[in-house]
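can u pls check wat happens w/ adenosine-5'-diphosphate
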Amino acid sequence: MLTGIVAVFHLWVHLNSTTVALTLLLLVLFLAARWGLRYALATSIAATVAYNYYFLRKLERIAINDPQVWLNIFAFLTVAVVGSRLSERVRKEGADARRRQAELEVLYGLSRQLLQTENLPSLLNAISPAIMLVTRADAVMLYLLEGDRRYLAGDGSGIPLDDIALRQLAETLPAPETTVSNQARIPLRVGVRPRGLLLINGVNLSVETLEAISGLISASIDRAQALEDLTRGEASKESERLRSLMIDSITHELRTPLTAIKAAASTLLLPKPLDEAERRELLTVINEESDRLNQLVSEAVEMAQLDTQEVHMTFAAASIRTLVEKALTYCSSLLDDHEVKLDLPDLPPVKADADYITKVLTNLIENAAKYSPAGTPIRISAERKDGMVSVSVADRGMGIDLSEQSLIFERFYRANVPSQQSWGTGMGLAISRAIIEAHHGVLSLTSQLGEGSVFSFTLPVFEG
Ligand code: ADP
């Protein structure tokens, strides 16, 4: 390019030497900005020589100590140095801005990913893949001192540290650093206490970004932990509330049979002689009401155990037909006034705890008998549905109002039907639902007021 300019001005366009000097200066500035100092310096010297030789015709002055030549060289060199410095600075600032933008995008992406997860175990599992995704790292490992837990994403072969080395690094590393092999090591802290370490392989991020990642991770872990503590607190408050509700309810329910027993016993103890029929009636009251008390207490205990998952269930292959037949014998006394229709085709065995499912069936059949008028039939059927067996107990009773359909599964809830003379604890359906859910099934209801109700539950097929 230099030769070109010199040739053009020397051979064809004859302008004064100042214009030539300015054009050459522009060339040096252009080279300094474009290709940096080295090219600009070499061109400056060549331009000085060419300018003096062709345009000032003072070649001999180059050799001797002519101040004009030195001035030329000085001007070209100054333009080269200043031009290259300036352009380098602009280039560097541009690159810095781009890098900062990319790092900001990394942090933004990471914070979005981490805020999506609120549950602590899934957050811990999500951190490494999220960092790997947003930083495009080869591998990421989150190490927590508590329990020496490691969460790895990507190829772990680049992270050869053993537990002892990791622990030591997590406890002693004062600030984030990047090793020569492009491994970023970021200490994680709770306040000033070390919490763990984050290793990111194959990235080149600034210390500020690494520090921000560390802060982001610590904040998200703290947040998930706080949320969990809150939920646990609320759950324990809720279970406390339920417990006191249960105690209130039981106390209330216990009072009725106790009052009856007390009254019957007091009458029996009176000095006034009673005839045989009266004595028998009072003793029957005591007998029946004690049974009721007994049932209330055992149901309350059972519900409490199901609530706290203290119940031990043994899941084995069970035939629905056998379970239904067993339940029917348990509630035979209530079925005198009802015709029971069975529709139980040959079905695969279900995976169930036979005693508990019999209890559910007994409860549903008893309810069907209790809440439907004498003479109406009760239909028990079963079918295979989506890999489960669905069992239904249908009656032609009073039905349940839509507004009450979900409430009747609540413990102690008894629908407010005026004709409801049969006593109950209001716990049968709550217990049944808890049992079915423990079997990974669903207990549901379809009912229409005045038409009847169908209670259905599903159980998984026994897979051997
Ligand atoms: P309990 O029968 O001891 O009252 P449950 O939990 O078994 O308690 O039932 C809750 C309420 O649901 C009952 O009080 C009753 O009002 C209503 N219910 C249950 N089964 C039926 C049914 N087959 N038909 C109509 N109402 C029913």
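The two ends are 86 Å apart (CA to CA).
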